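Reply to dn_fold:

You asked what the input looked like. This is it:
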Amino acid sequence: MSRPPLYTRRPFLAGVLRQLPLLVVLVAVGTGLFMVAVEHWRRGLVVVGLALVGGGLLRLLLPVRRVGFLAVRSRPVDVVLLAGVGVTLTAFALAIPGT
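and this is what came back:
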């Protein structure tokens, strides 16, 4: 006898698992912003930039049913925007001369 799918047995758990990629990206961005707030701005901005690049990779590699709210637009647009902003932010943070 086959068990029903998770989204019918435990819909809340299935919804949380579906949003796990977004949660990972948001936690990483939050960590980077916390680092900026405690005066480690360069490292913090690099963490935020790399989190956005990671979000772009997750959007590129995961199927639509697993990516959750990281899927906002079409896949190419989401990947280019996330990765492009992440790379640009990381490059700016690393290019500004330190004191």
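The chain has one domain: 20-95.
Hope that clears it up.
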